Amino acid sequence: MTDEIDQKLIIALTDDSRRSLKALAQITGLSSPSVAERLRKLEERGVLKGYSVEVDPHAFGYQIRAVVRISPLPGQLHEVERQIEATPQFTECDKVTGEDCFIAKLHVRSMEQLDEILDRINIYARTNTAIVKKTTVKRRLPPMT
């Protein structure tokens, strides 16, 4: 598992993945080489899977974010999955249990674009769409303890 120092590193990197080793060393009270070694070990163990940036889709003209529940028609599961993967506006998709097989998130520039994408999916599936008004909880880590 992880200890308190590892958890401090993970939280610090979650807040800002561009923090320098020096800044991480100040946060943890370790030396920069010790921080580098801990990060290497966390990466090797698969705890840290990558470092990323957060991009605002509005900067690229994507004004609408939607969550779509998707239930493939009989025999169409793999085609629906292929359609989702082939549509770049789908930015995230989970295969789930229950009535729906997929819960997907997508960004579109207009309601017309949303309709075009859903029309392609609706050949193979039933969909239920909700437009996101506000994000009340941004993506975050679950408790580490």
UniProtKB/TrEMBL annotation:
**Which Gene Ontology CC terms are recorded?**
cytosol
GO BP annotations listed: response to amino acid
| Source organism, top-level taxon | Bacteria
Q: Please provide the record's keywords in A-Z order.
A: DNA-binding, Transcription, Transcription regulation
Q: Which Gene3D superfamilies match?
A: 3.30.70.920, Winged helix-like DNA-binding domain superfamily/Winged helix DNA-binding domain
Q: GO MF terms on file? A: sequence-specific DNA binding
In its keyword annotation, does this UniProt entry include DNA-binding? yes
Q: Where is the HTH asnC-type domain?
A: 1-63
| Name listed for the protein in its UniProt record | Transcriptional regulator, AsnC family
